[in-house]
Amino acid sequence: MIQERIKSRLELEGIKLPSEMVNQTIESLTAHESVRGFLPQQLPENVLKAIITSARSAPTSSNLQAYSIVIVKDEKRKDRLAGLSGDQKFISEAPVLLVFCADIYRLKYVTAKQGYKFAAETLEMFLLSTVDAALALQNALVAAESLGLGSVPVGSIRNDPKAVADELNLPEGVFAVAGLAIGYEREGVRRGVKPRLPEPITVHDEAYSTIELDRFLKEYDQTMISRRTYDGRRVSLAGEPEKHGLEYGWCEHTARRCTKPETIAASASLRENLKSVLEQHGFSFK
What we know:
NADH Oxidase; flavoprotein; alpha+beta
């Protein structure tokens, strides 16, 4: 059991690479596992600086740098953000929560400062700033894990964007895309690197292919069922009778979460008004 928890994706999938290619970066990336339990131990200042500098070094579209990072270490603020993010205890436990934001406030400010009218009120600008924030988050995650820390992205920071904006004093044009909880992990919180969809499903040569999609989905379903991934985590469908004898794997779990957009957040009341909230907060989707 212990051996299974420390396997990287290379080992898990039996992928053989030349030894000179399996460097520290590849080892760190392929051993990623979300950690949701942290020790009450603060990060040294230079460690956090290394993580933030790595995040700031991420690619950015046209060098617009349309993102911002809010560093949250205050215990009470972390508790409040945990409450706004599905009451997830690990947010309070982590010594630091980084909140990665799509940020067009600064672009609007610079445009006006230079004497021009901001005309980039588009869906593209929203996507650009969101991708910038996501790239910075991924760099921070890789940096943290390369330093021996545990981390987990927090998408539920989007559950109540208005309340989060108020808590973090985000001006109009700044939206919290995701958080990243970082810290020294508690013993026993790892379950092992989670299996991913088979490569032929998500990686395509030259052009998209659906050949043997069903075969690979069935294979992945069996992997997740045998791993008991969804024990105690089944998504309930209101008014729908339970299917007796159903093998509850990735396909059933994913299908239930996608029965309507809101259930992606695990509750019909969460994130359903995200578009209108963002429009009120300075973003446009034209």
